[in-house]
Every structure is written in structure tokens, then in C-alpha cells.
Amino acid sequence: MAIESMQKARIAIHKSVSDDLIDKVQALGCCQFVPCDREGADGPSAAHLKQRLRGIDDLLADARFVTRFLDPFATKKGGGMAVAMGDAPEYTMGQLALMASGDEFPKTVKAVRSLEKRLSDARSGLSRASGLIAQLTPLADLPYSLDFYNRGTERIAGALMSVHVAGVGQLKLACERAFGDQVEFFALPPAAKSDMRAVSVLYPRKMADAFQESLASLSGQGGHQTSRIDVPSHLTRTPREELAALASEAEAFRAQEAAVTEEIASVANGAYALCQCCTDYWSIRKAKLESLLSGEQTEQITVLSFWIPKSALNGFKEAASPYESLVEIVYDEPDEGESPPTLLRNRGLAGPMEPLITMYGTPTYGKIDPTAVTAPFFYMFFGICYGDAGYGLLIVAGLLFLMMRKHVTGMLAKFLKVLIIGNIGAVIFGAITFSWFGDSITSFSFLRSLMPLAKLKILDPMNDPMTMLGVSMALGFIQIMLGLGLAFVENVRKGDRFAAFADQGAWIVFLCGLVLGGLATGGAVGLPPKVGWVMAAAGAIALVLTQGRDKPSLFGKAFSGVLSLYNVTAYLGDVLSYSRLLALGLGSAAIGMVVNLLTHMVSDAIPVVGFVFGLLIFVIGHVFGMAINILGAFIHSLRLQYVEFFGKFYEPSGEEFSPLGISTQYVRVKV
Fold first, then answer.
1. Quick one: which of 475, 650, 484 has its CA closest to 580?
2. Which H or E run contains 69?
3. Are 632 and 426 spatial neighbours (Cβ–Cβ below 8 Å)?
4. Same domain (yes/no): 189, 305
């Protein structure tokens, strides 16, 4: 259980060397700077730093715009996965600085913004033309110029309306009654699968008010749905003439879009790679400036507070030694109510588990780090749940090959190591249950030479599930007792011995007594049952006497103490949760057996090509089994830690240590 010891420090740096020193500190990645809440943080001397930060933000915005815009066009993208897999290009900070500060970056941004505007204009024009085509297509058979409905003439006005098919006749009759032969009424054919028809009405301009009154009267008498069709004012010719012109215009915009797209594609990879480098460079510079701004600023001095692991102090002092006459370091105690950040340092098999622990919550500084005690249980449970030696061997071999071929780093490297160790557990458990790709060794005659592996068989979950259930629940009981034991030790360490005895010790004695008494009664252990029952009684008495201690009245204390014994059902539920180890292990074996059975059936039933189809079923079926079972094994093994184990002792209220470092998204930086 290794939480790194932290030291709080303050450093006063002369501004002539502050940039150089913080560059070195950033390369070390060992200092988490603490924001200053004093007046110096916002004083006049900080203005220059803030101006530099605004400039970097503008440059970052430009670089991110280019990468975002070119992302659909670039064929060589890189990114976070490439960095984790070691496939990203590697540069020094000096090389990145040259790319970011040279003329090529601003020229690239300007060129890409120009291309983006041209592409946007082409797409906007195409969208506008396509929209007008869609609007005018239903009016294609209209014989009149659209100018009639926009401006009309000195004597004639027009209206285009969308009218329900059942109301067209009523509208025509109303117009003829109101205007006689002075109205020109024309109804276009209805659109397919539509109840609405476009209707044109041309009438004397002087009768416009009468026409509107006629429409209102028709609607007031229960007329069918009628709405006006607005035509853009710049369209003056007949719909067919305008449609032909719009089609030509749309084709021109498509050609323009294609030409610009081709031009973008020709420069995409180079510009994309450059701006990825610049994005990472300016992000690193921004983090540095934000750290400088976190301190107090005077005209000549920058004062910074930071947390640093005690193991990194010598490296920090060595980095600061060239500036000894311009730097002063003072070691501070934490402020009242301030808690140091948490940095986990676990070695061996526990190290790869750290990301899974912090995914649940960061351990509180000075409290228990559960990584080392969680790792063996997680690996063991994963192996039991996955439970097939053939699957485990394939995955271990594949992941080891990947890690040897690639320079895998960071969180991905730890995750892959977790899978490798867990699958080694699957190989071991698969060997002792004789599960090699299900029952392949006994199912296929050409594998009978591997039968000596059956000598490793210790358990047979398929034919004797109760033994495996007992093993699963025994492992669960041991882990739960360990969780209570860790909480007991933590209370003793804090000096609260009574809470350790009352809240953990009494439960440990009570639960162990119940289990021991039950096993002895069943003859499973060679002890008198009385020993277990006496232990259980002692634990129960202790619980009754202590669990109501916060109640004010004697009756409340006694009642709460007796009622606390009901929590034994919660512990029973926790232990029963470990039966999922049996269930998932049986599931893996069952899927393998079904795949082998189907392989046999198909290969035997189909002559000549049956072997080919059987081989396909074998490969696809077992690949599916590997994929689905590894997901279940990982999730359920982790769930047992998070829910059943951590709830007994773990306090995940810490702040993760986040030092100023060189963090990149697209490239690797050689320090």
C-alpha cells in the first residue's frame, strides 16, 4: 500500500530565470502548483504573463481550427491512440518550437481559412439553389411568370396558395362569384402523396382588398386549410425557366465544391501534421504560463507554491542548482484544512492496477491505498471468470507480441498488463479445470495427444458445481474479512481503538464464529462446534453493547444494538455475490462446449465441405466466446472490488496528483 509522501514548498524565482527554470521543472513532471489567492496573483506585474497567455490561446485556437477542419480530409491522423501505442512522431521541444514559431504555421492557417471560406461559400450556394429547386418543383407546370406574385403589374396582382384538394372547388367558385371573368384561376396538379394543391389566382390590383375579404369569408365558413406560398422576390421568370437556371447554378456550385475539396485534400496531411505539432507545443506552453500565473508576482520576483513527492526533491534541487543565486526554496507545512494530493507508487503486479483504483476514486492522502490488496483478488477472480486456458494463452501471446512490437506507454500499457496478468490466471484456472477451448481436447480426436494435460485437473465445475460454489464463497468471505481487517487497522492507526473494536473487531469475531460453527457442525473442520458458537455469541454481545452508543437513551442504545445484528444479512448478501465467479466460469466453459458441439454436427452432417464449415464455426464461435467472456470477466471481477470489498474500508476522497508536465495529444516529446 504505497501512497507517495508529499512535501509542500515555496520557491522565489528571479524573473530573469523563471522561464528557464519552469521549463526544467515541466520536463521533470514532479511539481503540482497551488493557486495563490493573494493580491499579487492579480497585480500589475502579472499583466505581461496574461497577455502572453491570451496570445497562446489565439494560436491554439488557430491550430485546433485547422486540425478540426482538416480531420475529414487527412489520411494520416495519428492522435491519442498513436501516442499510447508509440506510433506517434517524436520531436524535441526545440523542434516543436521551430515549427510553431516559423512562417509556415501562420501561412498554413491563412491558407486553410481561405479554403474553408471557399468551401463554405460553395456549399452555402449549393444549399440555397437546392432549397429553391425543392420549393419551385411543385410549381413547375405554372404557366405564369413568378413576377406576377412578387410585384405584379400596374393593374394586375397575383397570389399563390396551397389549398386542400377538397377546398379548391370552393375557392374557385368564391373567386368567380366575387370577380366574375376578371379573375384568372389556375390549379396545379397535386403532388404525389399530398392532399394539398398549388393554386394561382390573378386578379385586378384594385380588387386586392375584396380578394382578401373573400378568402377570410371562405375560411370563416369552415373552408379547408389554405396558406399563402411565398416566392423569393428575385425570381421573376416562369418556374420552368427558373428551375433550369437553378439547376445550372447548382451544378456550378457542385463543381466548385469538388475543386476546393480536391485542393484541400492535396494539402491536408501536411497541414494537419504541422498543426498537430503546434497544438501540442502551444498546449505545453500554456500549461507552463498557467503555472507561473498561479503564484504571486512582483516586479522582479515570482513566488510559487507547489506540492512535490519527497522522492523527487533531489532531482528538483539539481534542476534548480544552476540558478542558486537567483532562487530561494522554503519548505512549508500544509495550510489548515489543506490535504496533499495523492500519488500512488505501487510496484510489481500491483502497479498496473492503479488506473482501476483511481477510476473508482483517488485514495485519501495518509489513508489506505487498496491497490496492493486488491490486485491479487482481481487477477484471481478474472482468471476464474474467464476460466479457459486456451483463451488465456491466445490473449497473453497476442498482448505480449503487441507490447514487444509497439512502444506502448501510459494508461494503455497498464491496462494491457492487467489483461496479461488476468489471462495468466485464466490459463492456470483453465488448466486445473481442464478447459482448453472448452472441451476441445476430448471432443476432437486429433487433439487426444494433449490428454496428459488432464493430470492437472483439480476441479470440475461442470459436473461438480457445488465445490466450485464453495470455493467462490470462501474467497468472498476471506476478502470481506480482509476489508474489515483493514478498516480495523486504520481505526487503530487513527487512535480510535474503541471504534476498531466495536465496528470491525466485533463483526469479525461474530461472522467468523458463525462460519466456523456452521462448518464444524457439518463436519467440514475438525473442531468442536461449540468453539464457533462461543465466538459468534461473544461477537454478538459486543455488537449489542456497542452499536447503539450514539443513542441518548438506554432503551435506544439497547434497541439499536440488537437491531444491528440484522446487518448479518447484508454480509450474507455480499458473500453470495461471489457466486458470480462460478456462474461466469460455467458460462465460459458452456460456450466453448456448444461451439465444439456445433462444429462436430456441421462437419459430420455435410459431406466433403463439412470440414470447412465446421472449421469456420470453430474459429468464429471461439473468437466470439473470447470476446464476450473477457468483457464479463473484467466487469464482474472489478464490480466485486468496487461494491463488496471497497465499501468495507476504502475512503476515495483524495485529490489526484496532477503535476506540471509535458502532456501531448498527437506527438511524443523527447525530453
1. 475
2. helix 47-70
3. no
4. no
CB 226 within 8 A of CB 201: no
Contact, 564 vs 544, CB < 8 A? yes
231 in any annotated domain: yes
Does this model's pTM top 0.85? no
Residues 37, 182: one domain?
A: no
- Residue 497 CA to residue 503 CA, distance in Å, equals 10
Helix (H) or strand (E) holding 261: helix 239-293
Query: In which domain, by residue range, is 57 found?
Result: 1-129+245-343+657-671
Between CA 618 and CA 115 the distance in angstroms is: 53
pLDDT tens for residues 416-472? 999 999 999 999 999 998 888 888 888 877 777 888 888 888 888 888 888 889 899
CA contacts within 13 A on the Cβ side of 394: 13
CA atoms of 381 and 644, how far apart (whole Å): 13
10 Å CB burial of residue 90 (0-12, 13-18, 19+) is exposed
DSSP letters, 196-211, are: EEEEEEEEEGGGHHHH
pLDDT of residue 511 exceeding 70:
yes
Separation of alpha carbons 349 and 378, rounded Å: 11
Mean residue pLDDT of the chain comes to: 85
Residue 459: name the closest of 597, 626, 582 by CA. 582
Q: What is the rounded distance in angstroms from the CA atom of residue 564 to the CA atom of residue 548?
A: 8
**Dihedral (C-alpha) 659, 664, 670, 671: value to the nearest 10 degrees?**
-20
